């Protein structure tokens, strides 16, 4: 990111920009995490107790919560969640009946079945299209945000009362995307710095087979960042497949596939990327929890600003 872009971001989101600078260093992350943990000890205990009282209301069953959080801590990614059929159906119906927005542009709305018409209007292939205001408009998203199992996992992992900072649902299409689009929309290996401590739940809403838009994660890389260039100690950047293949063992580079409804959690400080689908589009829902909300990771947009392409 150029200095001018950093300055513009600082003017609009000063706390976020400061966190992005300090949060790349383990010392500052641990200092903030410990401070918040100590200040939230009582309220966190009360929050967890409330979650436990509501466990019977959860849509997730037979999840070993302690093991799930332990796996998330040690490996940076944890598996074993599955959406029930009713929730999955409600989410997919929402996606079919509401407009999504090409490249997250508020003036580029279209419905899923008008994908080709939207590409013709833009005069370029659409790699990604996101829905806006899902936490407001979709009851299934609201239900998942408030699910006691997900909230318990979030509080236990973050060691604090968790802050829900945003839902995001988007399509990824099988197109020959430019290198710039692949980089901008996270289809090259990278790490996120969204807070001093944070993580995300991911749910596949379509079947995801090998090569068809799978999420790829380097296991435990949140504790073992790549040191390929001297500057990698200080900066975050995009990495080529060759760089990651050369730095990490092949067994640790995991392509996450699964049927519609498959869910997992990841601390995306881990090295990760989304694969560009080859033949079939992918629909995914992401729910993110952090210590603080900087107002930059949600899908909330002013409805008056949303415009349709077709």
From TrEMBL:
It comes from the Bacteria. SUPFAM superfamilies: Clavaminate synthase-like. This is Phytanoyl-CoA dioxygenase PhyH. It comes from Eoetvoesiella caeni. The lineage of its organism: Bacteria, Pseudomonadati, Pseudomonadota, Betaproteobacteria, Burkholderiales.
């Amino acid at each position: 990111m150029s200095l001018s872009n950093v300055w513009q971001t600082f003017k609009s989101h000063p706390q976020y920009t400061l966190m992005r600078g300090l949060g790349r260093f383990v010392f500052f992350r641990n200092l903030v995490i410990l401070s918040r943990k100590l200040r939230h000890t009582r309220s966190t205990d009360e929050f967890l107790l409330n979650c436990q009282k509501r466990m019977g209301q959860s849509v997730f069953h037979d999840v070993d919560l302690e093991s799930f959080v332990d796996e998330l801590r040690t490996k940076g990614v944890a598996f074993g969640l599955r959406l029930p059929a009713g929730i999955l159906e409600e989410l997919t119906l929402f996606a079919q009946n509401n407009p999504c927005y090409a490249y997250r542009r508020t003036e580029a709305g279209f419905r899923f079945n008008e994908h080709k018409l939207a590409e013709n209007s833009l005069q370029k292939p659409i790699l990604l299209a996101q829905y806006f205001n899902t936490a407001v408009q979709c009851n299934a998203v609201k239900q998942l945000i408030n699910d006691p199992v997900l909230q318990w996992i979030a509080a236990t992992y973050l060691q604090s009362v968790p802050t829900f900072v945003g839902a995001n649902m988007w399509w990824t299409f099988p197109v020959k995307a430019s290198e710039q689009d692949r980089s901008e929309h996270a289809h090259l290996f990278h790490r996120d710095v969204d807070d001093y401590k944070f993580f995300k739940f991911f749910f596949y809403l379509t079947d995801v087979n090998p090569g068809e838009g799978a999420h790829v994660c380097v296991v435990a890389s949140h504790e073992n960042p790549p040191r390929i260039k001297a500057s990698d100690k200080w900066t975050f950047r995009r990495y080529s497949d060759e760089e990651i293949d050369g730095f990490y063992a092949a067994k640790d580079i995991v392509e996450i596939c699964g049927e519609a409804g498959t869910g997992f959690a990841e601390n995306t400080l881990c090295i990760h990327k989304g694969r560009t689908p080859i033949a079939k589009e992918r629909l995914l829902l992401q729910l993110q929890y952090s210590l603080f909300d900087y107002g930059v990771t949600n899908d909330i947009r002013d409805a008056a600003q949303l415009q349709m392409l077709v």
